[in-house]
Structure formats: C-alpha cells, structure tokens
Amino acid sequence: MGTITGSSVRRFLIAAILALSAALAACGGGSSSSGSSSTSSPTPPTSSGSNVQAIEVNGGPVPNSIYPNGVFTSVTICVPGSSSCQTIDGVLVDTGSVGLRLLSSLVTVSLPAATIDGNPMGNCVQFVDNSYLWGSVATADVKLSGETASSTPIQMISAAANVPSPCSSGGSGTDDGTLETLGANGIIGVGPYLQDCGAACAQSASIGLYYSCPSSGCTEVTVPASQQVQNPVSLFASDNNGVIVELPSVSGTAQTLSGSLVFGIGTQSNNGLGSAQIYTFNQMGYFDTKFNNTDYGESFIDSGSNAYFFADSSITVCPDDQFFFCPASTLSLSATNTGANGTSSTVSFDVANADSLFTNSTASAYATLAGPNTAGMFDWGLPFFYGRNVYTAIETRSTPGGTGPYWAY
C-alpha cells in the first residue's frame, strides 16, 4: 500500500477542544521485536440499519502512504435544503473532537458561507503538538447513512498564508491544512459534546477558535453556541444522543478492517448498551487511568489517536520516529480505568516495536502500536477499539445509561 509517514500521526485533539467545553460546563455554563506477526482478514460490519455508517481502517487517502490506525468513512454534504450534494471519502472518524472539517479544495458544491458581525467567519483548531487547522465556516446538510443533520456549520480547511497569530501560535505552529499533512480528506468529530467550544467561545473572544474576517484581517470574536461548528450527530432528528464504534479484533496486524459507526444509544434494537460499563467524566471532561502506580486524571478514549499514548520512561522510543515506542520485545501491560461514577475496570494491552510493525508494508491496522505522552494524560487510541464496542454519549442527551457525557465499553 505504501510507506508509513510521520505526518499521518494525529494526537490529542480532545485536549484542544473537548476539555475546554467541559471546563466551562463545570463552572456553570505498536507484534514482536523480530517483526513477526499474524495478519487477520477484514471482517464485515457488525451492525446494519439506517442508523449505521460503514467505516474502515484502510491506510487513508494519501497516495503511496499509509495512515497507521486511522479509521475512515464517507460523508455526503449538500447545499442546505437542496439536492446539490457531494460525497467525500477518506474522512477520519474522531470520537475525540466535535464537528465536520473538510479540505476546502475538495468541496465542489457551493455551500453558503457563515458570517459573524457581517464578516466571513474563521475557525481554528489547535493540536497539542503545536499544529493547527485553519479555515472558514460554511453551512451544509450533512448526510450519514439514513441520518441527516440539517443546516450544520462545518469547517472548510484551507492552507493559508495569513493565518491569525493566535491560531498559528505566532507563526511557530505547523499547518495541517493539506492532504499530505493531515493524512485525511477531513475529520468528522463525533465526540461527547454538542459544539466544538460551547460556552467558552460564547463568553470569551480570547479562546482562539473563532474569528471575524473582513478583508483587512481576522480578529478573535465571541460566537453563540448555535453558530459554532456542531456535532452532526446531535442535529439528527433521532438517534442523536451518541455513537458506537464497532470494530473487530486484530491479531497483530491487518491489511484493512471493516466496521460500523452506529448512531444513537438505546434508540433502536441495534444500539443498546448491553453489558457495557459506563464511565462518566470528571469536571474537566476526563476519567482516571492508573498505570504503573500513577494516576492520570486527564485520560480519555479517542478513535482519532492512532495508538496508545502514555508515559513510561522505561520503554525505548523509536530512534527514527519519536511518536512511537520500540521495545526490544513485545510488552504485556495493564492499566485501570475509573469513571467519576466509580465504575472501574482493568484493561490489558500489548506494546510492540513500531519499527518492526511497520515493516509490514501492506498493513494499516496495528493492535499493539503505542507511543510516549508526557502531557500527563493516558490516551486510549484506536487500538483500544479493536474487538470492543465503544460508546460515546453526548452531553445533555438522555440514554438508557443516564445523561451524557460518558464513555462506555
């Protein structure tokens, strides 16, 4: 399929967006070291129905390059209220962010531009690794399977020369606004919040996410929550209280992996909680992970992160790619997750040598890929999803397991 590229690594988007929303709400508002591994065949989606969107781990849309552990889908966008529509594939499914973000260069339908104070509205997303996405805001009907989110504000990603300084970190940040740097045609954020910023950006103009952009330049502004980039699932007429990511298990590596993004929790016969345990959030929008006798109170589950990311100075970091671990032999580890509601469970996982994993040039799914995280968080990325049904419940929405937000598995 191609070669692994470091530019395809996405990490910690949740820290830039979701924690911000949670904070305001609280205030009132990767096989063995020898490279041998088994390879599993793709498994068909586990669910079907009008509320089920096909997803696939397939290496992504960048020619001659593999996005490791990226799960992708297709999204249809339409001019609001019309039949003028376009389907874009290669969109990364991200339970760790909120909102649909598409490379503007790929959008051929004429979506109406959103404005604020009579000027075009700009939107910025910053990643913890000092990269960012910049673009304008447009309005579209977003169609996924049999569901429609009408008149939804979305981000039109563009690589721009004059990105506002707060977005680009004074020019020191890395612009991820191209196919090659993003590794995807877009991101569909189906995380546990209604908007990408919520009360924070409605109350303060200094958050750095929203801008009024007359011809003279862009200025930070406050934006009402209803005009911010929205979680499209929350705007569905039904099945709008959360999502389930269903992916089969992986033994070692897999060339591709088929699964389902199921809309709704407990709204139809195919999206019940079953025996899944619910983990509610603390005031900052996280749960606790205890690993190596250390509690990481800012831990989260995120399909948009392509590995397990955690702190362990005893594990060798890959000499050629500092994003990943390269232990001499595969490690069998475990950590304990505890929700704010007291629900607790121990998760066992393996960590293999990433360089050895990547010698399989036809694989895109890696069950044992992991890397270092010194930000005081434990990031349960896409490998955590393999062989599990992982639920993300949206804030304020009622479910059979209580009102969101929460994760369940």
Characterization of this structure:
There is one protein chain. Helices cover 8% and strands 37% of the residues. It has helices at 13-26, 165-168, 179-182, 199-203, 354-357, and strands spanning 3-4, 39-40, 52-57, 65-66, 71-78, 85-94, 98-103, 115-116, 119-126, 131-144, 147-157, 174-175, 186-190, 210-212, 219-220, 242-246, 253-254, 257-263, 278-280, 287-291, 294-301, 308-310, 331-338, 344-351, 365-366, 370-372, 379-380, 389-393, 398-399, 402-403, 406-408. The model is unreliable at 6-45 (pLDDT under 50). 53% of the residues are buried. The longest helix has 14 residues, at 13-26.
CATH-defined superfamily: Acid Proteases
**Total tally of structural domains:** 1
Gyration radius over CA: 20 Å
Uncertain segments of ≥5 residues (pLDDT<50)? 6-45
Shape: globular
Give the oligomeric state: single chain
- By CATH reckoning, the class would read Mainly Beta
